[in-house]
């Protein structure tokens, strides 16, 4: 398997990221919103392209807006790359590079595939928020970053 890495997205990556985003649902008004969202994330330098070797296989939006902790707002992998441990490798990369003590993300209760991936990657359940998507609560997860997983020296 190719080495998995992250690269900060640039303007030329917007079409690729929107393509991955639209692969989960095709709706014209949603697509326009997604283009605007991706343009904003690229401008704010919070969008990252997920690469396997030199090939783009997905993207993520990551920042520190969630109570100053690492926050994965969105991560989408190409369908052919799902279920192969790539998401776990991306979580590990973020855990190593995260400047905060914890890494948070969320997913809908209906997204059992993501819930399994998060559990496998060592994330713990943090809580549930209702009211965002009718009848499909948002489940929040977190894991300690590499910085916080290191043993501390005792005096």
Characterise this structure.
By secondary structure, this protein is of the alpha+beta class. The chain contains five helices and seven strands. A seven-stranded mixed beta sheet has the order 1-2-3-4-5-7-6, sandwiched between helices. The termini are far apart.
Task: Give a brief rundown of this model.
The chain is α+β, with helices and mostly antiparallel strands. The protein has five helices and seven strands. It has helices at 14-22, 28-43, 86-97, 112-120, 146-149, and strands at 4-8, 47-52, 55-66, 69-77, 102-108, 124-129, 138-144.
Q: What global shape is seen?
A: globular
What is the residue-mean pLDDT, rounded to a whole number? 88
The string of secondary-structure elements, in order, is EHHEEEHEHEEH
Number of strands: 7
Largest sheet: 7 strands, mixed
Distance between termini? 43 Å
Low-confidence parts, pLDDT < 50 over ≥5 residues?
150-155
What structural category characterises the helix and strand content? alpha+beta
Question: Fraction of residues in helices?
Answer: 25-40%
Rounded Rg: 16 Å
* H/I helix tally: 5
Approximately how much beta-strand content do the residues carry? 25-35%
What spatial order of strands do you see in the largest sheet?
Answer: 1-2-3-4-5-7-6
